[in-house]
Write a structure and sequence with these properties.
The chain is mainly alpha-helical. About 65% of the residues lie in helices and about 5% in strands. It has helices spanning about 20-25, 30-40, 50-70, 75-80, 85-100, 105-115, 120-130, 140-160, 165-174; strands spanning about 10-15, 20. A hairpin with a 4-residue loop joins strand 1 and strand 2 (about 20).
């Protein structure tokens, strides 16, 4: 396909909306981070419509705002109910995202962050980004990295083929 390289761009004006590029730029690779959130929140890769919707919402809410809204959705609350304590939420993220139980130090750190006011969305951004930055072979990293890689592939495949895979099919991939 065609690629356009743009530098020093603050906004992109479309016929129906204006995208504030600077709203997402400070988070580095937005595709990666949004996909991390998707895998953690929905336990699957993004479908085209949902992914495109949240990319558009990032222009108005920013990445953290999108993560917080995603974690307030009924679908996500079915996985992570509101009545989970901070400790239980952190443990659920370890199990669902990294396929392992938390270690005492990690659990204490992340639970402490939530006790100090860190939102569920921000916790997932920070925790998943930190996990991907650890050395290969770190418990849980390879599992999550594989899921995120497959999810990124699914996003690109759906865009290239102009299709939308079903959530159940995407859950099987990741």
């Amino acid at each position: 396909g065609n690629i356009a390289l743009c530098r020093n761009v603050e906004q992109i004006a479309y016929a129906d909306q204006t995208l504030a590029v600077s709203a997402a730029a400070s988070f580095g690779n937005v595709d990666l981070t949004l996909t991390q959130i998707y895998v953690a929140a929905f336990n699957r890769a993004p479908e085209t419509g949902g992914y495109n919707y949240w990319v558009g919402e990032m222009a108005f809410r920013g990445l953290l705002g999108v993560a917080d809204v995603i974690f307030s959705l009924p679908t996500v609350k079915a996985i992570y109910p509101d009545n989970l304590s901070n400790t239980a939420f952190v443990e659920a993220i370890y199990q669902n995202v990294f396929d392992r139980a938390s270690d005492a130090e990690g659990s204490a750190y992340w639970t402490g962050e939530m006790d100090r006011g860190l939102s569920r969305g921000k916790l997932v951004i920070d925790m998943s980004t930190a996990a991907l930055g650890t050395p290969d072979g770190t418990p849980g990293k390879d599992y999550f990295q594989d899921r995120v890689d497959w999810a990124l592939y699914a996003v690109a495949y759906q865009a290239r083929e102009h299709i939308e895979l079903t959530p159940s099919h995407l859950a099987e991939l990741t």
